[in-house]
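Quick review question:
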């Protein structure tokens, strides 16, 4: 079938060993798990709108004057949407040949934990606010809008972050040492009468100042304390640029090392390393 070879994402989700045996389950399977069919695309778009409405209902319910006037309506709407999501989840389980494959997949786990909070609200006050987890289901937009091809760029970013983790760890260790030393010095200079009542509170001030956040809830009053604060502020501008430079350097290196598979038929480049087919024309890629 045509939907079997459009994209790598489609090929993964439509593996032959996942296809149900009966015809009615197969039709449900294509609609629920497929985005390359008209019905499947419409289903996913309707699902995204339902998710957005559910999140909006939860957010509006947290506003006091809206909850007082429309609380009952919002709760009824939430239960209706939760019922639809529950039916959808069960339909996914029923339609796939290997239910556990879906249940323990990334999307399967997200779908499950996005349904549970409404039922937990029956036993725990405020449990319904956990429904904002449903926002994670919006990740399906990558499949619906054919954006899965760009996930290769995300993998490059992840590789750069992993490669720079040791340097960033050393950097954070240095920053941690600086704020402890500076906070202790400020505690000794200013003292409790100026708001620096303890070393932990002074370290908190040093972190706020070094990161250039500057809440202003604590401020040095003496000339020596203000001088030290000025030094920390200047250091903050320099320190903020360090992790950015580290990640940028590793990102550049990862981009150079990333394989650039190109399609011999249409010339499309920058496929993900694990890609077997061109995401534009469906031609088989040459891995050599």
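Suggested answer, residue by residue:
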């Amino acid at each position: 079938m045509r939907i079997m070879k459009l994209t790598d994402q489609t090929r993964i989700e439509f593996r032959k060993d996942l296809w149900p045996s009966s015809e009615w389950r197969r039709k449900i399977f294509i609609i629920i798990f497929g985005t390359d069919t008209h019905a499947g695309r419409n289903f996913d778009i309707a699902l995204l709108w339902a998710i957005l409405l559910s999140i909006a209902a939860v957010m509006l319910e947290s506003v006091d004057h809206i909850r007082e006037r429309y609380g009952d309506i919002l709760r009824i709407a939430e239960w209706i949407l939760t019922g639809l999501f529950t039916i959808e989840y069960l339909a996914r389980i029923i339609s796939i040949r290997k239910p556990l494959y879906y249940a323990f997949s990334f999307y399967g786990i997200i779908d499950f934990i996005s349904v549970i909070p409404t039922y937990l609200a029956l036993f725990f006050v405020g449990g319904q606010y956990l429904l904002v987890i449903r926002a994670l289901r919006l990740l399906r937009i990558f499949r619906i809008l054919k954006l899965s091809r760009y996930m290769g760029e995300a993998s490059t970013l992840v590789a750069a972050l992993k490669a720079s983790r040791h340097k960033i760890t050393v950097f954070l260790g240095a920053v941690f040492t600086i704020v402890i030393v500076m906070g202790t010095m400020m505690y000794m200079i200013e003292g409790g009468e100026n708001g620096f009542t303890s070393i932990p509170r002074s370290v908190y001030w040093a972190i706020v100042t070094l990161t250039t956040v500057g809440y202003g809830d604590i401020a040095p009053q003496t000339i020596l304390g203000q001088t030290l604060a000025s030094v920390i502020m200047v250091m903050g501008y320099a320190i903020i640029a360090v992790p950015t430079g580290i990640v940028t350097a590793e990102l550049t290196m990862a981009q150079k090392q990333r394989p650039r598979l190109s399609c011999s038929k249409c010339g499309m480049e920058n496929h993900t390393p694990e890609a077997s087919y061109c995401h534009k024309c469906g031609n088989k890629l040459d891995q050599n």
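Why it works: The radius of gyration is 27 Å. Confidence is low (pLDDT under 50) at residues 1-13.
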